Automatic annotation (TrEMBL):
CDD domains: PRTases_typeI. The keyword Cell inner membrane does not apply. Keywords: Glycosyltransferase, Magnesium, Pyrimidine biosynthesis, Transferase. InterPro entries: OPRT, Or_phspho_trans_dom, PRTase-like, PRTase_dom. Homodimer. This is Orotate phosphoribosyltransferase. HAMAP family: PyrE. Pfam families: Pribosyltran (PF00156). The lineage of its organism: Bacteria, Pseudomonadati, Verrucomicrobiota, Verrucomicrobiia, Verrucomicrobiales. Catalyzes the transfer of a ribosyl phosphate group from 5-phosphoribose 1-diphosphate to orotate, leading to the formation of orotidine monophosphate (OMP). 5-phospho-alpha-D-ribose 1-diphosphate binds at R102, K103, K106, H108, D128, D129, V130, I131, T132, T133, G134, G135, S136. Orotate binds at T132, R160.
Length: 185
């Protein structure tokens, strides 16, 4: 299985053309719902393999130590889990723990905004399925930093090439994307 196989699943299941209003409020001729691909068993396997390969290459080339991977629910959840599971299967000594960031802190219990395997002091990879303006990724970064985490870099499945990468990188956080609008279409 290859990047071409993942691209084929994304194009079949996740990419739609027409007129759409995006989460950012912007109008677009392109809608990408990566959840359909990320929740497909074959899509998840491919995302895990490609995502782990891209993440591991960056970790090794820069000598990073990463504790965990996660991002804003719901889009980041299956991607983070797929990459985490692949890391544990292929390189158990480098396995990444997985967490999720709620849109708002929980109103009961411990009132946490970050759930799962994350603790203050962790160095993490923040994940998003699609970036347009980078707004939801930046919200996740804010929550992670507020809870004592350090974001090493971002992993995104699709960069729409509409300013999101630049907004995230202006925060000092490099972006690794598996696909861009131009490489997908």
């Amino acid at each position: 299985m290859s990047a071409a196989d993942l691209k084929a699943i994304l194009l079949e299941k996740s990419v739609r053309t027409g007129t759409f209003t995006l989460a950012s409020g912007k109008q677009s001729d392109l809608y990408i719902d990566c959840r359909v691909t990320a929740l497909d068993p074959v899509g998840a396997i491919l995302i895990g393999e490609m995502g782990w390969a891209a993440v591991r290459e960056k970790i090794q080339s820069e000598g990073l130590h990463i504790d965990a991977i996660g991002g804003m629910t719901m889009g980041a959840d299956p991607i983070s889990l797929a990459v985490g599971m692949t890391s544990a299967r292929l390189h158990p000594d480098e396995a990444l723990q997985v967490f999720t960031v709620r849109k708002e802190p929980k109103g009961h219990g411990q009132g946490k905004q970050i759930e799962g395997n994350f603790k203050s002091g962790d160095t993490v990879i923040v994940v998003d399925d699609v970036i347009t303006t980078g707004g939801s990724t930046l919200k996740a970064i804010d929550a992670i930093e507020r809870d004592g985490g350090k974001v090493a870099f971002a992993l995104v499945l699709v960069d729409r090439e509409e300013g999101g990468r630049q907004a995230i990188e202006e925060r000092g956080i490099p972006v690794v994307s598996l696909f861009s609008r131009s490489s997908l279409l």
